[in-house]
């Protein structure tokens, strides 16, 4: 063989061998330092190895691999995070706050499994960080997601790769597919340094370590994330091969460590409920000496087979619970109270406090919740008060210290009129919440009122999503729902990412929505306590809009299923001049519906009751609305009085019940025929 050709091959082989050696050494030392907490070489020696690897990969890019430790320095900035679905939902945990509540949890488990034997639990700190899911395929980190809403999270893979306590490649004997779940947190020492740096450069301070962790993980530029000293502890694993699952949760945790995944040394197995309480007390006693923030203990049934038999409720496992520690408290002075109006019209009293540091954060505002709480606690302006802050929850005023009450304190008085729009404020007897009756016209409620108005069950204006509505309001193109019907294409085209076709479609949908039904119009107004059923009842009970708007409380209360609370809300809504004005504008802008006389022509289904089940091509609420408009009733369960079961694909048990009772089964084609005959 030609020696000149052989030299490059030998050089290439030598380079590959050196790169592989460097990667192996770096990962070995990372494992010793971040997982075992037992560094084996000085930092300067580690830096030499790392810098040599960076230099080789920069000079020979073709030698780079996805699992190289060099990826921890961060990638080029991204423009957005993509959302991805979790293969297994990341559920929340139910909370307990007292020993008694945990004992009740333990008792419920014993009842469910019909056993009096003590339950073995796995206990671990509840980190005040960010829950993440990390996917390994064939031992290589391929994807990482935030918890998100529990079903869909954001892809943060590049940022997760920068965290040195998370291996890019697992050690030996791992399953082909492995999902690791755990908590990314900001060590307290690193958090203090980060805020000190921010102070020196006049940058924004992070409120707490959890916010710092969340903000770091959501950096579009992963090079910024790489500079933050984030850390990670795993608390569970999901396998592709079920037969690989160990018998206990704790064995699962120990196996993670063998693969090079960091787990919390404070994790422990306890034999019964009393040992759980002892563990919680011990951890609470050293809470402030831990190098990270925690807000409680996560308690899990240790036996995995028992976990599977206990199963889940809608949002949480039955076999786990979080024992929350008492929130941290401080004393300060209540200087004044403002009333903020929320998006649904609720007035929330907010305490303006003499600034005080609580749980590492300077607090100057705190919630007073509502007037009931103020009255119950006896809080007055000028009081010395105890405030509490738990995690990133809004601080609250716990109570006044009466022995420190000075002369001249002032009672906190609920405004009679909305501080935003001037409409009347209503607080019903027996209700804690006070609400602005401005409804359609209140600026604080504007966006939510419009979102509700255009929703599918209301005016059904397709294309007007939340973002477009927010843009319209923020650009001051609309101030209320009536102005939707005066929008022009020129105005719509001013919005970001609004094309000609989309603008035309929205205008067409707005025009189409002008023709509606009386009950949908009533529902669209967003009157408190008026859902679809109540809106339908009102549309059937009043001949036209004017008679409904003029109805007194007594006549409203006389209607079936409308009580005194709903009656007062309906009455107050229609007595508010700003609401009256917007309703009149809607009518003037062309919103209309069939009169009682027109509706009477289509009532040959009157007296009939239908039940809907299975999957149909038409939305179920549209079928229901069509049946109701033609005089029929729609029930949720089958009985001998059911006129017909409208059955789509996968009808379930209702089909069997209907067949047993001899109830006629109606398919979608027959349904369309029935509805067409009544038009």
UniProtKB/TrEMBL annotation:
PROSITE patterns per the UniProt record, alphabetical: BRCT, DNA_LIGASE_N1, DNA_LIGASE_N2
Cofactor dependency: Mg(2+); Mn(2+)
Pfam family, one: DNA_ligase_ZBD
Binding site for NAD(+): 43-47, 92-93, 124, 147, 183, 300, 324
GO cellular component: cytosol
Highest rank taxon of the organism: Bacteria
InterPro entries the UniProt entry points to: BRCT_dom, BRCT_dom_sf, DisA/LigA_HHH, DNA_ligase, DNA_ligase_AS, DNA_ligase_CS, DNAligase_adenylation, DNAligase_N
Function text: DNA ligase that catalyzes the formation of phosphodiester linkages between 5'-phosphoryl and 3'-hydroxyl groups in double-stranded DNA using NAD as a coenzyme and as the energy source for the reaction. It is essential for DNA replication and repair of damaged DNA.
GO molecular function per UniProt: DNA binding; DNA ligase (NAD+) activity; metal ion binding
Annotated protein name in UniProt: DNA ligase
Keywords linked to the UniProt accession: DNA damage, DNA repair, DNA replication, Ligase, Magnesium, Manganese, Metal-binding, NAD, Zinc
UniProt-annotated catalytic positions: 126 (n6-amp-lysine intermediate)
GO BP term, example: DNA repair
């Amino acid at each position: 063989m030609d020696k000149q050709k052989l030299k490059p091959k030998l050089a290439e082989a030598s380079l590959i061998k050196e790169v592989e050696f460097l990667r192996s050494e770096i990962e070995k030392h990372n494992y010793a330092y971040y997982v075992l907490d037992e560094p084996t070489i000085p930092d300067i020696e580690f830096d030499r190895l790392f810098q040599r690897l960076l230099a080789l990969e920069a000079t020979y890019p073709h030698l780079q691999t996805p699992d190289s430790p060099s990826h921890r320095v961060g990638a080029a900035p991204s423009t957005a995070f993509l959302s991805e679905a979790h293969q297994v939902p990341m559920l929340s945990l139910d909370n307990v706050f007292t020993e008694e509540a945990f004992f009740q949890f333990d008792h419920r488990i014993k009842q469910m499994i019909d056993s009096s034997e003590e339950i073995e639990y796995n206990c671990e700190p509840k980190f005040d960080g960010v829950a993440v899911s990390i996917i390994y395929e064939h031992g290589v980190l391929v994807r990482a997601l935030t918890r998100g809403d529990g079903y869909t999270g954001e892809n943060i893979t590049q940022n997760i790769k920068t965290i040195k306590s998370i291996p890019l490649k697992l050690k030996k004997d791992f399953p082909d597919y492995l999902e690791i779940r755990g908590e990314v947190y900001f060590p307290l020492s690193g958090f203090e340094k980060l805020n000190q740096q921010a102070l020196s450069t006049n940058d924004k301070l992070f409120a707490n370590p959890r916010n710092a962790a969340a903000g770091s993980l959501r950096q579009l530029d992963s090079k910024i994330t790489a500079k933050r000293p984030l850390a990670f502890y795993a608390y569970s694993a999901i396998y592709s091969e079920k037969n690989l699952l160990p018998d206990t949760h704790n064995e699962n945790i120990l196996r993670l460590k063998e693969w090079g995944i960091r787990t919390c040394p404070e994790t422990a197995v306890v034999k019964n409920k009393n040992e759980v309480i002892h563990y919680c007390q011990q951890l609470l006693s050293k809470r402030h000496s831990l190098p990270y923030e925690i807000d409680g203990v996560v308690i899990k049934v240790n036996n995995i087979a028992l976990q599977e038999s206990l199963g889940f409720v809608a949002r949480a496992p039955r076999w786990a619970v979080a024992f929350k520690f008492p929130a941290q408290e401080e004393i300060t002075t209540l200087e004044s109270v403002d009333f903020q109006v929320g998006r649904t019209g609720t007035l929330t009293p907010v305490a303006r406090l003499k600034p005080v540091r609580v749980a590492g954060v300077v607090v100057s505002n705190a919630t007073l919740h509502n007037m009931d709480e103020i009255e119950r606690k006896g809080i007055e302006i000028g009081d010395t008060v105890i405030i509490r802050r738990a995690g990133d929850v809004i601080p609250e005023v716990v109570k006044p210290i009466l022995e420190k009450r000075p002369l001249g304190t002032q009672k906190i008085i609920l405004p009679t009129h909305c501080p935003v729009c001037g409409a009347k404020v209503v607080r019903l007897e027996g209700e804690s919440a006070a609400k602005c009756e401005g409804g359609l016209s209140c600026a604080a409620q504007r966006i939510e009122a419009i979102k509700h108005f255009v929703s599918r069950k209301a005016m059904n204006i397709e294309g007007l999503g939340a973002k477009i509505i927010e843009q319209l309001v923020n650009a001051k193109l609309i101030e209320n729902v009536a102005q939707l019907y005066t929008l022009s294409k020129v105005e719509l085209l001013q919005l970001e990412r609004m094309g000609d076709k989309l603008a035309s479609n929205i205008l067409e949908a707005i025009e189409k929505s002008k023709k509606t039904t009386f009950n949908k119009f009533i529902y669209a107004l967003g009157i408190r306590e008026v859902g679809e059923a109540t809106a339908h009842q009102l549309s059937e009970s009043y001949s036209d809009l004017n008679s409904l708007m003029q109805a007194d409380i007594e006549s409203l209360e006389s209607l079936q299923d409308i009580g005194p609370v709903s009656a007062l809300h309906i009455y107050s809504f229609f007595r508010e001049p700003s609401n009256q004005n917007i309703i009149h504008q809607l009518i003037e802008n062309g919103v209309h519906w069939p009169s009682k006389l027109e509706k009477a022509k289509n009532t040959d289904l009157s007296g009939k009751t239908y039940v809907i089940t299975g999957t149909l091509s038409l939305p179920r609420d549209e079928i229901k609305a069509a049946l109701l408009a033609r005089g029929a009733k729609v029930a949720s369960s089958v009985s001998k009085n059911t006129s017909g079961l409208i059955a789509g694909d996968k009808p379930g048990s209702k089909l069997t019940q209907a067949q047993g009772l001899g109830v006629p089964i109606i398919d979608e084609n027959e349904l369309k025929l029935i509805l067409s005959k009544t038009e």
